[in-house]
Design a protein that fits this description.
homotrimer, alpha/beta, five-stranded parallel β-sheet, 4 helices
Amino acid sequence: MLEDNKTVFHLIGGSADEQDLALTLAENLTEDDSIEMDDIAVLAQAEGIDPVTKEGDESDRVRALVEDGVSVKACSNTLAMFDLDESDLVDGVETVSSGVGELTRLQNDGYAYIRP
Amino acid sequence: MLEDNKTVFHLIGGSADEQDLALTLAENLTEDDSIEMDDIAVLAQAEGIDPVTKEGDESDRVRALVEDGVSVKACSNTLAMFDLDESDLVDGVETVSSGVGELTRLQNDGYAYIRP
Amino acid sequence: MLEDNKTVFHLIGGSADEQDLALTLAENLTEDDSIEMDDIAVLAQAEGIDPVTKEGDESDRVRALVEDGVSVKACSNTLAMFDLDESDLVDGVETVSSGVGELTRLQNDGYAYIRP
């Protein structure tokens, strides 16, 4: 049994409902008093990139998560695909080489994986 | 390599096809003779809550899973959101503080995660 | 922290977009120079079986993944359900007793799980 509680949410779908749910679940985990979290991460890629961009409809919620200490990460392959760069991302969102490489690293490091 | 075989299925989608598939996969795992399972869990939340309610179209299959020893859990945030309480759930379904907290705890405890 | 980097992609959805994305992500991981992978697996089941069949629209990409050393596995429950047999699969695709049993074994053996 692991000592640390760490979780990554995989934000990958393009539907507004799915993106809303992913953010709601991340918010729920920050608010669950029954578990002390050591880290919460959100990995955005493919069609799931929109909420972590400044122009995204849900960017305010992503900004609040970042301010709450959630590690929000964006896949650089996805940025290239949609012709975005780091300046298009909500402040505090980190860029990673590939979303799938980062998901592998995080799970190896003991993060639970949740795909809303 | 872990000694125990434990798996949690994440039942989260609202489509009937997706819910049917999630239950079918849980049933398949109880029936796979090539692997000895120490625990099988199903975590229902968001739109995926319906099958674990008494009124749900698939409640008979959930009842059979519970009788077969599968641990079926419902997210209390979801119950509050849909104005449900424990008495609305199939007998034997357990309530957990938050679905995402429970998924974190289970994976920390060595459960594999499957999102149908 | 695990020493080995191993990841399994769960190919389960029936939409062409979702199947394309799953294959793209597996390809991305083979190409990510920032992480040295010890194994990459793709587990196909349910509606996600199509790309790993010889007649599948994406069979060329699956063939290329196999040639690139990716372990591609097909669920035998799914083959039975769709009246397929091993000869219908792309050469090099392995059959497993149940997709969910294999996903449990792989995660127990340290594989990260990614559900595109």
